[in-house]
Write a structure and sequence with these properties.
α1 packs antiparallel against α2, α2 packs across α7 and α6 packs antiparallel against α7. The longest helix is centred in the last third of the chain and has 33 residues. About 40% of the residues are buried. By secondary structure, this protein is mainly alpha-helical. The protein has seven helices and two strands. It has a single domain, classed as Arp2/3 complex 21 kDa subunit ARPC3 (Orthogonal Bundle), CATH 1.10.1760.20.
């Protein structure tokens, strides 16, 4: 039974992550000054769930969270939904390198995480989102590449600050391997 594609824990994480992403995108977004491009905290949530639960969680948190947000505004903007899903997937591909679940999210892992998230943001927002905007919606090139560059830079900053803080905090709650030694367990004394 160990060969399941996705665990119950991951499904629950996807639901929780998508809900948090939706709330943040829908109600905690600030205009960036570039049309249809906001500063919001949701990229940190996608990155955290991808770093903790892996690529499938990252993919679906990005996809579902962004889709729900767009549906409440009117209609889905598929190019950006796909970019958010790809961002989560790319962060999640390297989730074991971050060692968050082992309680070892130290300086090296923070560095690895940030290199990955900056590259994932560049791929998703500077390449994929603008290309899909042009292909799907026939948007002007100069507009979509400006939007993508601004979104990618803002997202990278949000993940660098908020994502790292959340992952450091979560990592501290995890028991480090080998920290409990046999014979050192608590024994209740009888009086």
């Amino acid at each position: 039974m160990r060969n399941k594609l996705i665990s119950v824990k991951t499904v629950v994480a996807i639901g929780i992550g998508s809900a948090i992403m939706f709330v943040l995108m829908r109600f905690v977004a600030l205009p960036s000054g570039v049309p249809n491009t906001n500063l919001n905290l949701s990229p940190a949530i996608v990155a955290v769930f991808a770093a903790v639960f892996g690529p499938i969680a990252g993919l679906f948190v990005g996809f579902i969270g962004h889709t729900l947000t767009d549906l409440t505004w009117g209609s889905p903007w598929w190019s950006w939904i796909i970019a958010d899903a790809l961002f989560g997937l790319l962060i999640g591909v390297f989730w074991r390198l971050y060692k968050v679940n082992e309680g070892k999210f130290g300086v090296l892992q923070v560095l690895i995480f940030n290199v990955v998230q900056i590259l994932a943001n560049a791929i998703a927002w500077v390449v994929v989102a603008p290309a899909l905007d042009i292909l799907i919606y026939q948007e002007p090139q100069d507009k979509v590449f400006l939007q993508g560059a601004v979104a990618g830079a803002l997202n990278a900053i949000v993940v660098l600050i908020l994502g790292v803080v959340l992952l450091l905090g979560y990592s501290q709650t995890r028991v480090k391997a080998g920290s409990l030694k046999q014979g050192g367990e608590y024994r209740a004394s009888k009086k």
